[in-house]
Design goal:
Helices cover 71% and strands 0% of the residues. It has 329 residues and is an all-alpha fold. Helix 3 packs parallel to helix 10 and helix 5 runs parallel beside helix 8. The radius of gyration is 22 Å and the shape is globular.
Length: 329
C-alpha cells in the first residue's frame, strides 16, 4: 500500500476538503484496521500533475517571495516619514504575502512529521488569507491610482490617511471572515464565494489599469506627437503591470467559473491547483516588481543594487512617479 504520508507531499493545501465520508459509521471507523490516519489528500492519487505544479510554485514563494516581501516592509517602514498614498495598502499586502510564505514550511512539517488536523486548520486559515487579501488589496491600490490619474481634484480631497485606514480595516475584516469560514468548512458552495471575488477583482483591476493607460496616452501636449518622457515611462510600467495581473489572475478567472463542467475530482485535484498556482506566484512577482523600480534599496550598498539589476534614475521625481505607476495593479 502506498504510504499516505507520501501523498501529503504532493498536494496543494488550498484545494482539498477534509471531511470524513458521510457513509462511514462510528463502528466502521473503530473496527476497520485498514483505516488510514488523518490526511487531506484522499482522492487525488491518480491526478498529481496539477498538484506538483502548485507545490513547486509554493516552494518558489518561500525561497524568493518571503525575503522580497520582508524587504518591502522594511523599506516602507524606512520611508514612513514620506509615504506615498498607496504605501498602507502595499504594506498590508506585503505582510499578508509574507505570512503566507512563512506558513509553507509548517505545511511540510505537517506532511512529513506531525500529520495533525489542528495544524491543517491553521494552514487552511493562511490559504484563506491569501485567497482574499491579495485581490482585495490590489484592488485598493488600483482604486487609489485610478482616482489620482482620472480625478486629481477629488484625489486631493481624499488624500487623508484616515480614508485608507478605514478601507484597509474593511478589507482585513472581509479577509479574516473568509479565512475563518474556510477553516471551519462545511459551507454549501463556499468555493463559489472565491470565484465571485476573483472575477470581480480581476475585472476591476483590468478596468482601472486600462483607464489609466488611456488617460496617459491622451495627456500629450498640444501639437505634440510624442508623450512626455516621464509619462511614457509610467505608461510602459502600467502596461507591464497589467500584463502581470492578467498572467496571475486570468487562469483562475477562466477556469473556476466552469466548475460544474468538470468531474468533481478532476476540478478538485487538477483544475483548482493549476489556477491557484498562478494566483500564488503573485506573492513573489508583486514585491519583485516594486523592488525593481527602486533607485536604490535602503540599507544595501550601491554595488548590491547594481548586481540585483535595480535601475539608476538620475531624476528623483521621475523615479517617484515610476514607482507610483508600478503600484497601479
Amino acid at each position: 500500500m502506498e504510504d499516505p504520508l507520501h501523498l501529503n507531499s504532493i498536494l496543494n493545501l488550498t484545494t482539498i476538503s477534509t471531511t470524513v465520508p458521510l457513509n462511514a459509521s462510528a463502528g466502521d471507523l473503530v473496527t476497520n484496521a485498514t483505516v488510514s490516519p488523518f490526511s487531506v489528500f484522499e482522492g487525488c492519487e491518480e491526478m498529481e500533475q496539477g498538484i506538483l505544479f502548485d507545490l513547486a510554485v509554493q516552494t518558489f514563494n518561500v525561497v524568493l517571495g518571503l525575503p522580497a516581501n520582508i524587504l518591502v516592509i522594511v523599506i516602507l517602514l524606512h520611508n514612513r516619514k514620506e509615504p506615498s498614498s498607496s504605501d498602507l495598502f502595499l504594506g498590508c499586502l506585503a505582510f499578508m504575502d509574507a505570512y503566507f510564505g512563512i506558513m509553507v514550511p509548517f505545511s511540510y512539517l505537517n506532511l512529513y512529521y506531525w500529520n495533525s488536523k489542528e495544524v491543517w486548520s491553521a494552514l487552511k486559515f493562511s490559504y484563506g488569507v491569501k485567497d482574499t487579501s491579495g485581490p482585495l488589496f490590489l484592488s485598493c491600490i488600483c482604486l487609489d491610482r485610478f482616482v489620482a490619474v482620472l480625478f486629481p481634484l477629488a484625489y486631493g480631497q481624499l488624500k487623508a490617511v484616515k480614508y485608507r485606514v478605514a478601507l484597509s480595516m474593511g478589507v482585513l475584516t472581509l479577509t479574516f471572515a473568509y479565512a475563518s469560514a474556510k477553516t471551519i468548512g462545511g459551507l454549501h458552495n463556499f468555493e463559489k464565494v472565491f470565484t465571485g471575488e476573483i472575477l470581480a477583482a480581476f475585472s476591476w483591476m483590468v478596468l482601472c489599469n486600462g483607464a489609466i493607460l488611456m488617460a496617459l496616452k491622451r495627456s500629450r501636449g498640444a501639437g505634440k506627437d510624442s508623450m512626455h518622457p516621464m509619462k511614457k515611462k509610467a505608461f510602459k510600467m502600467v502596461v507591464s503591470v497589467l500584463s502581470i495581473v492578467i498572467f496571475n489572475y486570468l487562469p483562475p478567472v477562466a477556469l473556476f467559473p466552469l466548475e460544474d463542467h468538470y468531474p468533481p475530482d478532476t476540478f478538485r485535484c487538477l483544475v483548482q491547483p493549476v489556477g491557484y498556482a498562478f494566483l500564488n506566484i503573485s506573492s513573489s512577482i508583486q514585491p519583485i516588481i516594486y523592488l525593481s523600480r527602486l533607485e536604490k534599496v535602503p540599507f544595501c550598498p550601491e554595488t548590491f543594487s547594481r548586481w540585483c539589476g535595480f535601475p539608476k534614475v538620475k531624476d528623483k521625481n521621475v523615479n517617484v512617479n515610476i514607482n507610483t505607476a508600478s503600484l497601479a495593479a
